[in-house]
Amino acid sequence: MLKGIVGLVTVLFVAGSAYAQEPARTGHAMTPADMRVLTDARIGLIKAALQLTPEQAKHWPPVEEAIRARAEARVHRIAQLKALAEQAGQREFNPVELMRGRAEALTQRGANLKRLADAWQPLYQTLNPDQKERMRLLAMHVVREIKGAVERHRMAEMLSMMSEEEEGDVE
């Protein structure tokens, strides 16, 4: 039974990850509504994988709220980055302002992650060993996805820089 659930969760996460990455390939950004649908799907997956008992389900609302808050913060961060990118050509680049903005974003992300961990703590303490194993598998998958996304982002930046250098050589 556990292998079946893990297999289903893995397939659904891979599908969700592919959906999340598709806009980068096509050049079309996900809308906030798309991101909310993806968040709903991920929340549903977590709940399905954990198979909470009625007693455990009492601890779920703060976890879901924290997951949704992090997702909304991400939508907000992306919107801010788009606005900054649009303004970049209209004003002088200020690296100090960029560093301060990045520091504020990291502080907020850290606070949101702490809130999520705090929300998970009471529920996690009630999980049985099988549920904890499923949660570990989900968490490991998320970490791998994040690492992969970071690596893809770095590679895209390097390719962009190389392309710009080649264009400069042609002129």
Q: Mind explaining what this structure looks like?
A:
The chain is mainly alpha-helical and 171 residues long. It has one domain (2-147). The chain is built from six helices and no strands. Helix 1 (2-26) packs parallel to helix 6 (129-170). The protein is elongated, with a radius of gyration of 20 Å.
Mean pLDDT: 80
Our measurement of the CA-to-CA distance between the termini, rounded to an integer number of angstroms, reads 63 Å
Helices, by number, come to 6
Topology order in helix (H) and strand (E) letters: HHHHHH
Shape: elongated
**Biggest β-sheet strands, sense, barrel:** none
* Tally of discrete structural domains: 1
Strand-residue proportion: under 5%
What is Rg? 20 Å
Count of extended strands: 0
What keywords describe this structure?
171 residues; mainly alpha; 6 helices
What is the topological layout?
Blueprint: H1 2-26, H2 32-50, H3 54-57, H4 60-88, H5 95-126, H6 129-170
Helix pairs in contact: 1-2, 1-6, 2-4, 4-5
